[in-house]
Amino acid sequence: MNLLWVLAGIIILLVLILKKINPMLALLIASIATGLLLGMPIEKITTSITNGIGSTLGSLVMVLALGAMIGKLAEDSGAAKKIVYVLIRIFGFKNIQWAVLLTGILVGIPLFYNAGFVILIPLVFSIAGAAGLPRLYVGIPMAAALSVTHGFLPPHPGPVALSGIFHAEIGKVLIYGLILTVPIAIMAGIVFPRIIIRLNKTEPQQKRAITFDDEHTLPGTLKSFTIALSPILIISLATLGLLLFHSGPVHSFLTFIADPTIALLITLTITLLIQDTSISKAMDSCAEGVKGIAMILMIIAAGGAFKQILVDSGIGEDVKNMAANIHASPLLLGWLIAALLRVTLGSATIAALTASGMVIPLITAGASPELMVLAIGAGSLMFSHVNDTGFWMFKEYFNLNLKETFKTWTLMETIVSVLGIIGVLILNTIIN
Q1: 333, 3 contact by CB (below 8 A)
Q2: Domain extent at residue 367
Q3: According to a count of CB atoms within 10 Å of the terminal CB, is the N or C end of the chain lower?
Q4: What are the φ and ψ backbone dihedral angles of 428, each rounded to 5 degrees?
């Protein structure tokens, strides 16, 4: 019966979102309504909401804030553009999809999805025009790369928030996420568009040279790649180093810099030291970056409240018992719950946070917390459609009708999600 009340709470959340209520307010209202439906005392509901907000944001605020600062500096300094230009020159026209895919991954690491999309889309259109290729043929690799980084890699909001909720080691999440990211991005971003978009092989493409008139104003190649890759390198190398040093001062130092807050703070310091802009201008960029994620933080906070309501109500035990009765893999069940919520609610972040409150007991049942982060991340990308802002952004920028958007964007996101859970299950088999 409790699961039916949770379903009713999710329906309330869906109705509020469809009525264009701000997601933060919708989550708070749905949290209270769900708590009441589950028979929680009023005073316990308020306590759960407060605890949920505090516990979720406690491990998240500085990571997202520092990540947003680095991303804004990469955008304003031109480092993101520089990476695009360098990779295009390296790969050339023949392998242009690979250049765009790798660009999307590298730019997607420090930038949030929407920011990365808006920055890269004009360059994608320019590349497609110069190469004589359909825009979608070049654009899907970019969208796929940004999508997998958004779903699987810290410091993006979903993976970071879930790591905090499940007490997962964020270094392991990052390493496992990188293992999944590359093959999935290739399948969804390279193989998929080549299957659905047939190029005209009979007529020679009218290629013209791509000119980068503003390249002389951009930072150097080494600086640009340093800004983009430093967080990944610091966390990954420190995490791998911990496998070799189990105690002593080296272990303590590696543990310190493996913390995402410290790793991002080091990256931000490096970025400020190597960029050519003044400190005052850089601080303005940092402030703008933090402003850009204010609503994301509020939505995550409200999602944490909803999660805590589900945890404190004991609904997770019902899910745990259900999983035991149907003998389903906890990872597969976590993916399925997140996928159903994604299809219903639209937002990947909200779907992931809502699912987390239901599957926390599955962690104690033996599921790897790091793999559960990735399983839910994969589920939260499932079948994006008309209730997702990403769907409409892709549709409008590429000037598609609804049918075309479903055949490209929605199918691409579904491929990423399904391959994601397959990859997680394979990793689980190897690790265990």
Answers
A1: no
A2: 2-431
A3: N
A4: -60, -40
Residue 390 structure tokens: 């990403």
Is the Cα torsion angle 88, 89, 94, 99 positive or negative in sign?
A: negative
Q: Note the pLDDT tens digit of each residue in 291-320.
A: 878 887 888 888 888 888 887 887 767 776
How far is it, in rounded angstroms, from Cα 26 to Cα 190? 38
List, for residues 343-401, the tens digit of each pLDDT value: 887 778 888 888 888 888 887 667 899 999 999 999 999 998 877 878 888 988 898 89
Query: What would the pLDDT profile of 172-217 be if each residue is shown by its tens digit?
Result: 999 999 999 999 999 999 999 999 987 765 444 444 455 565 667 7
Amino acid at 4: L
Taking the C-alpha atoms of residue 66 and residue 110, their distance in angstroms, rounded to an integer, is: 10
What's the number of domains the chain is made of?
1
